[in-house]
Amino acid sequence: MDSPSSANRQRRNGCRIVLFPLPFQGHINPMIQLAKILHSRGFSISIFHTRYNFPDPSNYPHFTFHLLSDGLSELEASTLDTLRLVKLLIANCVEPFEQCLAQILSPDDLICRVVCVVSDAMWYFTQAAADKFKIPRIVLRTSSVCSFLAFCALPLLRERYLSYMDSKMEAAVLELPPIKVKDIPRLETHDGEDMYRAIENMVRETKKASGLVFNTFQELEEPELAKLQEQFLMPTFTIGPFHKRFSAASTSLFTQDRSSISWLDAQAPGSVLYVSFGSIAAMDQQKMNEMAWGLADSMQPFLWVVRPGLVRDSEWLAMLPDEFLEATHDRGYIVKWAPQQEVLSHPAVGGFWTHSGWNSTLESICEGVPMICSPFFGDQMVNSRYVNDIWRIGIRLEKGLERGEIRDAVRRLMVERDGEEMRQRVMCLKEKAGFCLNSGGSSYEALDALVDFISSFTF
Ligand code: UDX
């Protein structure tokens, strides 16, 4: 699929790109996939990475890794409060990033002729460093365009809707249909105000970038892309879905339990609901119980990723009521972490109950698996609204985690006609995602354009 001509390869020989992922699973996966894509097009790759979640370089023999000292204490690095971690990392990485960039750009550094920096959008301070060294910066926004538009509008939305956010949760947000007031990405933690500022900085600094890359495809978010281009005037490249070019398996931060695949092998086609809420989401014990009993009451087989830490302050499996484990032992299978892409492509899987992280959403679309959505925060609120209202390939749980609603949604998705229609629609999107990566498809062409764009920096 991605086979560049040898002439192009030669032309790009010696051109190095620096990539700098935000060090969380949902951000590392797409950035490393992008690195692999660009490497396959002839560029040399340097990865700048924090000590926090530093990957094993032996998994990437073709890349050069640079360790950034992120200044996190052991205690800070072990917190499960992701917003707090992001805030600390942003504050601590400004200088190490600049120093590392200065070093790699120095004439004494023999490995490179760095042509540009690709940074996660949240690393907004990298724009100033790139400007200082007069090197182009391309931003990778790892989530959907629709959720990015909501982040761009956040100051306005807070001003207009904040006063009644809690009393009119179902009201429409007129500026961004189909979003409702309850879908506005809120950051109501003790670090909330700092994070709102960080989002504003992210948007402002993204506007200064030379280019913008999204892990999505044109056919999925066409109207949203048109809106984006009214605000962001630089070239924008939608070259996703990345994981269909290079899988995310090598970037997994947790060990993937392959027994889930053998268990699926013994299940009937389309019968299993796969349940996973990604790498960050956490809940309290009461919500976990509702989840468990909703699943039990649905009477459907399920494969459930119960990640350690999914329930705050609870040991693994102590999170689940004994009666639930007894009631479902013949039709449920529980693991700490699964090979998700492989699970979703397994013929036994007929639905995905997800937190609507963007990687999970795209992976589900690409395998033609309809969803139940339980968003927790940030982009998940908007992604799930689009799954339910715009693409109509899933059911968003509107009451949070409530046993009766869960039971009904699982049955609707897995055995009722409604679910079958969602399955047909998501199969259409799967087909479109496949086409867009083939020769002449939108993402294929956009990748060629991105490669030309980056190559133009060298002349
Ligand atoms: C975070 C944010 O929470 C999310 O909203 C944002 O879109 C990206 O960053 P995360 O919550 O981890 O990500 O979710 P998601 O984007 O879905 O990424 C999870 C990744 O982990 C996926 O690539 C998925 O395939 C992988 N995964 C998940 C596994 O490999 N095994 C599992 O058991 C669960």
Secondary structure layout:
Elements: H1 6-12, E1 16-20, H2 25-40, E2 44-50, E3 63-68, H3 74-77, H4 82-105, E4 114-120, H5 126-132, E5 137-141, H6 145-152, H7 154-161, H8 192-207, E6 211-214, H9 222-231, E7 236-238, H10 259-265, E8 272-276, H11 285-298, E9 302-305, H12 322-328, E10 332-335, H13 340-344, E11 349-354, H14 358-366, E12 371-373, H15 379-390, E13 394-396, H16 403-415, H17 417-437, H18 442-456
Parallel strand pairs: 1-2, 1-4, 2-3, 4-5, 5-6, 6-7, 8-9, 8-11, 9-10, 11-12, 12-13
Helix pairs in contact: 6-15, 11-16, 16-17
The structure holds uridine-5'-diphosphate-xylopyranose.
Describe this structure in words.
This protein folds into two domains: 6-146 and 193-245 and 438-456, 3-Layer(aba) Sandwich (Rossmann fold), CATH 3.40.50; 251-434, Rossmann fold (3-Layer(aba) Sandwich), CATH 3.40.50.2000. Helices cover 44% and strands 14% of the residues. The protein has 18 helices and 13 strands. It has helices spanning 6-12, 25-40, 74-77, 82-105, 126-132, 145-152, 154-161, 192-207, 222-231, 259-265, 285-298, 322-328, 340-344, 358-366, 379-390, 403-415, 417-437, 442-456, and strands spanning 16-20, 44-50, 63-68, 114-120, 137-141, 211-214, 236-238, 272-276, 302-305, 332-335, 349-354, 371-373, 394-396. β12 (371-373), α15 (379-390) and β13 form a beta-alpha-beta unit. The longest helix has 24 residues, at 82-105. The two termini are 27 Å apart. The mean pLDDT is 94. It binds uridine-5'-diphosphate-xylopyranose. Uridine-5'-diphosphate-xylopyranose is lined by residues 24-27, 29, 142-143, 248, 252, 276, 278-281, 305, 337-338, 340-341, 357-360, 363, 378-380. The site of uridine-5'-diphosphate-xylopyranose has 27 residues, from α2, α13, α14 and α15.
